[in-house]
Amino acid sequence: MTDQSVSRADSALGCQDLTKSFLGVRAVNGATFEVPRGQITALIGPNGAGKTTVVNILSGLMKSDGGTMHLESTETTNWESEKIARLGLMRTFQLSRELGGLTVLENLLVAPHDQPGEKLFNIFFRPGRVTKAEKAHVERALEVLRTYGLYELRDSRASDLSGGQKKLLEISRAVMAGPKVLLLDEPMAGVNPALIERIGGYILDLKAQGVTVLMVEHNLNVVEKICDHVIVLAEGRTLATGRLSDLRENKEVVSAYLGEVIDASAIS
Q1: Which CATH architecture has domain 8-97+179-266?
Q2: What does the pLDDT look like over 97-115, one tens digit per residue?
């Protein structure tokens, strides 16, 4: 299926005929879609639909077996994750991957690209430049931590945070890197309703700042509340795209979720 609802010119991220197999089993089977620039898009589907595999491929964590992908106007098919990140695509993980031995603040300070202190030459011959950059990064990191409610925990070890705090740290670290496109893999999973509300607000704020968001999410109440566009995957292929309110009337979508065609209002 080709996604006709978003043109390539209006797309910040997309893939065409993407495939990936594991031990002969097709986890992704021709997925094709476009993510509209400057909007929040949900990638939804039943368990085993291939959502996380697609995100892993788009972010360079995993290579595809076939198909193409692009970030803005640049084809990024099977690029390394670092190269993709330098173009402005950042991501979070379903299971948080904090640097547990570092403090919360230090986790953010590793995020910016091309820091002067990464080069030995600058440390010895341009120390002023290194110091100036480090000071700016600390100020920016503290600002981000205030925004995401982690400022009071800035000197705590990341491994000591609660599950919900680790989710916030993942998002904060991605934001610290200055994303143009942000991939969120189940940002609401395992967190309490109050934090779900907060994270939803943070994602809306990112959209207001011009960041394109693609989020894998099972909570369809959240999807309907904050997402502009929805992509439905089933059995590794794109089943449908559009607004969730319209997709509720799509019998294929309802069947993919529930195993049989029944009242679409059950998807909630």
Answers
A1: 3-Layer(aba) Sandwich (3.40)
A2: 998 999 999 999 998 766 5
